[in-house]
Design brief:
The chain has about 475 residues and is α/β, with parallel strands linked by helices. The protein has helices spanning about 75-90, 115-120, 135, 175-195, 215-225, 235-265, 280-285, 295-305, 310-315, 320-325, 330-340, 350-360, 385-400, 400-420, 435-460, and strands spanning about 35-40, 50-55, 70, 90-95, 125, 140, 145-155, 290-295, 325, 340-345, 365, 370-375, 380.
Length: about 475
């Protein structure tokens, strides 16, 4: 910065120094950059900063070979930069680190990623969905946060449960065992009641009632259970009481079973989804890999956690093969979700737009979000234009421009996905073999048991 003569001060007089009318206050110096070119560090990260590589252009003097020249295309952060560019009269070019990371200070003292470019003053600012963290603020200065959002868990959409044994779903195992034992016990109970029944009147001799075999009694009680009526006539009151309460029992069981089975077949049942950080441990046991963006603020908060759920989640990442859990770009996370059992820890807006691009129905978002975070523009330490950037960002936020630009990016995807789904019919579907396969399995089991019984009878007869 050039120094300008501000005035003179005569120490022999008490009068204050005189100031030329052309003097510009320091806070107003950067309201007009005078067409100066800023170097902006960013990664290809639409919907915040979409870029494309510049081909066939010579490298700018002073630019390191490890940096890539990029051209901004669209995104929330691109809209912010264009607004700042018009208001403050500057141009900018975009560079990206070779590692493609967001980065930050490392234990060995180095600073990686786009944060490193700014910290080493290889770039003037960095803007690319950069989360403001304490460690990053130790090497760069951040503007006020211009966008706030939370982090979500993204996994593949829960698959429908197999309906092979759907006929058993209305009751728990304990209920089925009680029904089976009751059906097996009521036959012997009725046999004992009929055997102990006294004559119709005292002193009157009557022929004893015909004896009913136990297997006949048991089969008739089973008929009652499956609503097939009763073929036995019981004239004694003890036997009638047994039948009355058995009928009542069968009515209650049948009503509950048929109603619940209808609901089970009408409403699809799915695997248990991953809704919160507390579900990640079970997901890990079921073969899922937990992942996030490498060298990001999310990796940092889990890594630096001294206790609680964040520390538990940090243990669930694959530290032996880091490439499985720590990915260089969000697109790779969504590729892994579609190809394997993978849970991606990622910011919400970024995740929803990428899911919409690939088919929203293929992904599941956890119901619980966590770690509210703010995104800011990273400036090199002591940047004199930081205050002007803060004022401009404050005006954009107050006017609702940032939220408007975010909605514009969402609408781009919404229009594409809605047009691609046009004409897809909805409504209830017909009953398929998948719904009724359990009935055929039961019939097949019955045929096999009958064949086995027939073979045993033939073998016993020959012996």
């Amino acid at each position: 910065m050039l120094l300008h003569r501000a005035g003179t001060w005569n120490t022999e007089t008490a009068a204050p120094p005189t100031t030329p009318s052309s003097f510009t206050p320091f806070e107003d110096l950067y309201r007009d950059f005078g067409g100066r070119e800023l170097v902006v560090a960013a990664n290809d990260n639409w919907p915040f900063f979409g870029v494309e590589e510049v081909e066939g252009e010579e490298e700018v003097e002073g630019e390191e070979g490890g940096e890539r020249r990029l051209r901004p295309t669209s995104g929330i952060d691109v809209s912010i930069m264009e607004a700042l560019k018009r208001s403050l009269n500057f141009t900018y070019r975009v560079v990206s680190p070779a590692d493609g990371k967001w980065g930050g200070p490392q234990p060995d003292g180095t600073v990686t990623g786009i944060i490193g470019l700014v910290a080493r003053r290889e770039a003037d600012i960095a803007i690319c969905e950069i989360t403001i963290t304490g460690s990053r603020e130790s090497v760069v200065d951040f503007t006020w946060p211009y966008y706030l959002e939370s982090v979500t868990l993204v996994s593949r959409a829960p698959a429908p449960k197999q309906r092979t044994f759907a006929v058993l779903w209305p009751f728990t195992l304990e209920v089925w065992l009680c029904i089976i034992l009751s059906t097996l016990a009521v036959g012997p109970v009725m046999k004992g009641v009929l055997h102990r029944t006294p004559p119709t009147a005292p002193g009157v001799s009557a022929p004893p009632p015909p004896s009913v075999p136990l297997q006949v009694l048991s089969f008739n009680f089973f008929r009652n259970l499956v609503v097939q009526g009763n073929l036995l006539q019981v004239k004694s009151w003890p036997g009638r009481f047994v039948f009355f309460f058995w009928y009542l029992f069968c009515f209650i069981v049948y009503a509950l079973y048929s109603g619940t089975l209808t609901a089970v077949l009408a409403v699809p049942a799915f695997e248990r989804p991953i809704n919160s950080l507390g579900d990640l441990s079970e997901a890990k046991e079921n073969g899922y890999t937990v992942g996030t963006i490498q060298d990001s603020s999310l990796e940092f908060i889990f890594k630096e956690a001294k206790g609680g759920i964040y520390q538990e989640v940090w243990q669930l990442f694959d530290h032996e093969d880091r490439a499985r859990s720590f990915l260089p770009h969000p697109d790779l996370g969504f590729d892994k979700i579609q190809s394997e059992k993978f849970v991606f820890v990622n910011p919400e807006l970024n995740s929803k737009i990428r899911a919409a691009q690939r088919g929203r129905d293929e992904f599941y978002f956890g119901r619980q979000t966590f770690y509210p975070q703010g995104y800011g523009i990273a400036c090199y330490s002591g940047a004199p234009f930081l205050g002007v950037f803060n004022q401009m960002l404050g005006r954009m936020i107050s006017a609702g421009l940032v939220n408007k630009w975010a909605q514009d990016e969402v609408q781009k995807v919404s229009r594409t996905t809605s047009s691609s789904r046009k004409g897809v019919a909805g409504g209830p579907s017909a009953i398929t073999l998948e719904h009724l396969q359990a009935a055929f399995f039961i019939l097949l089991i019955g045929f096999l048991l009958s064949l086995l019984a027939l073979l045993l009878e033939i073998i016993v007869t020959k012996i």
